[in-house]
From TrEMBL:
Top-level division of the source organism's lineage: Bacteria
Pfam families: PagL
Protein name: Acyloxyacyl hydrolase
Classification of source organism: Bacteria, Pseudomonadati, Bacteroidota, Bacteroidia, Marinilabiliales
Amino acid sequence: MNKTNINYRMPKAPQWINSKKQDTIVVILLLSCLVFVIPFTNSAFGQESLRLSYIYGNIHPHNSLITPLVKEPVKGFTVGYTWKNHRGGEWRRYFNYPNHGISYNYMSYGNPEILGNSHSLLYYLQFSFLPKRKFFDAGIIEYTGIGYFEKKYDPANNPENQAISTHFNIGATIRFYARVRIKPVYIEYSSGLNHFSNALIKSPNLGINVKNRSITVGYEFEDLPVRKKAPETDGNIKSRHECWIYGATGIKEIQGMENKNYFPVNASLNYSYRTSAVNKMGIGLDFVYDPSIEDYAYLNYNYTGEPSLNFRYGISLHNEFILGRAGIFASYGLNLQMNEYYTRQRYYKAGVKVYFNNLIGVVLLRAIPLFRADLLEFGIGYRIAPKSKKQ
């Protein structure tokens, strides 16, 4: 691919983000916030809070086409709000009372002409490793949501951006954190990995991975929840055994045929066993029809039309964590066909289920074994379980 001159240059990001000389000012401002609010605090320490984070890091070149895009360090900030204790009070007691909330995230990728900046709205869950965290806390925090990128791939004006080809992308971040609390203010340091991509809705889609660290100052508005022992069983559980079925579909492109859309279809039959009030484990049979696979094989692997590649079926094991009316699940499977074009038999699924009594809404991320073709799917399902037993 011949490189073309890029005539368009996006406006510069805020100078306090891009200036190395002013990085220390951000830290000083965060610490100043702490000093300012301490005289107005009382003996409370709590869950509902506001948090402000300064983020700095570097793009991880996970592909050779990403390496030329790495210029200056990645910098940004996050503003977050943690919801009140009574939000999700039933399920939170099973997971050591995690905090959860919503945040806005801004990131500048150190290459404004090609990568630009991103703005994202993310939901986060913070899980503590410690049973008591009055003064010190450590754990893991995960962010998931939607991000908007100001710059994307364009064959004429921005051909070097092989990472991002749509303005809107899926974002996920995982960080390990350590926190010191000075009632009701806390200072937090965290380190982790951030990822953005569009799940092959449009190609090219190598995505951006950023190894990052953050410094956070937060202010908590309410006391920690009164800890109660979580019951081993839940009176609302219909049965420990259930069967469920769902169908899902999405849209994708493959590199080399960017103007052609594909609509894969996924159907799954599953059995789950309720191991506790907040956990299910089970086995499933999956059927996938993905019309993009044979076209990709034609372009890249000298495929001649035989054998058929688009339809596959496999068996999988899954686990699900119950968070009220929602469930977070992951599945690991093995396809039952084998031929020279499939590089791996394994496949993976991860997603969210939302329960409306026995109806299920499904948002699913899928990775099939041929060429790691990721896909975002939306679907609907139904579960079958025996009637409630008297307690």
